[in-house]
């Protein structure tokens, strides 16, 4: 109840209106543009950024199961299945049956998947270097820390909403 009361008191301040307006401006311009900056290179080879991240996760541990990927990427198994389906259709990954348990599917990158991943990693390393030059390493680290805090808050809020339903 205290949290609810604190939120209401914050919302009634003039400063809140300024911050909310600033948030709208930042989201519409900055975060949207940042999202596009990372989506565009992968779209050029018919991938989403999420699919690129999955390719990278599979590359780290060749021979990874859906369960391990879902835990590592912190996404639902249904969303992961959709993403993996797209990667399979594009022949960027292949699936095998686990030797220890035939119910478990193991995923590895194909040669095309490795080439696509290498191309995108080079592009993303370049983007990160440009951001670091533009913002400076300290400011970029602070921005990433803030975005991580927002991500953690959103994930926690979603879990609480699910628990309340």
From TrEMBL:
Domain of life: Bacteria
PROSITE patterns with a match to the protein in the record: HTH_MARR_2 (PS50995)
Domain HTH marR-type: 24-152
Short name of one Pfam family: MarR_2
SMART domains recorded: HTH_MARR
Name of the protein: HTH marR-type domain-containing protein
């Amino acid at each position: 109840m205290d949290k609810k009361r604190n939120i209401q008191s914050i919302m009634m301040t003039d400063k809140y209106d300024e911050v909310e307006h600033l948030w709208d401006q930042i989201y519409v311009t900055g975060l949207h543009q940042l999202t596009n900056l990372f989506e565009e290179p992968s779209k050029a080879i018919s991938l989403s950024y999420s699919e690129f991240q999955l390719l990278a996760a599979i590359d780290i541990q060749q021979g990874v199961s859906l369960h391990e990927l879902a835990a590592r990427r912190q996404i639902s198994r249904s969303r992961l299945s959709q993403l993996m389906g797209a990667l399979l259709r594009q022949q960027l990954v292949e699936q095998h049956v686990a030797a220890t348990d035939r119910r478990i599917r193991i995923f590895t990158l194909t040669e095309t998947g490795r080439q696509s991943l290498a191309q995108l990693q080079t592009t993303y390393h370049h983007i990160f270097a440009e951001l670091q030059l533009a913002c400076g390493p300290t400011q970029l680290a602070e921005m990433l820390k803030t975005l991580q805090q927002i991500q953690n808050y959103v994930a926690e809020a979603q879990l609480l909403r699910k628990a309340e339903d």
